[in-house]
Design goal:
Blueprint lengths: L9 H12 L4 E2 L9 E2 L6 H15 L11
Antiparallel strand pairs: 1-2
């Protein structure tokens, strides 16, 4: 949960990363792995480092929902 919004699924997470971290990812559901995401590592190391930093900063604000149903 971030900023009071619940992210539901890998597509919502990929959309969030694009909007908040400016990092394009592919939802895992596209590859029959829902709940995961993919990134391309075919770029310069400094670009990958910057993307990982932005992702970590974006997800650092997440909080657990107050009521989680099992």
């Amino acid at each position: 949960m971030t900023s009071g919004k619940l992210l539901s699924g890998d597509i919502a997470f990929a959309d969030y990363l694009l909007a908040e971290a400016r990092v394009a990812t592919v939802s895992g559901g596209v590859y029959e792995m829902p709940g995961h995401f993919r990134i391309s590592t075919a770029c310069a190391n400094d670009l990958l480092d910057a993307a990982m930093f932005r992702i970590s900063r974006a997800v650092a604000t997440f909080t657990e929902p107050e009521n989680i149903l099992s």
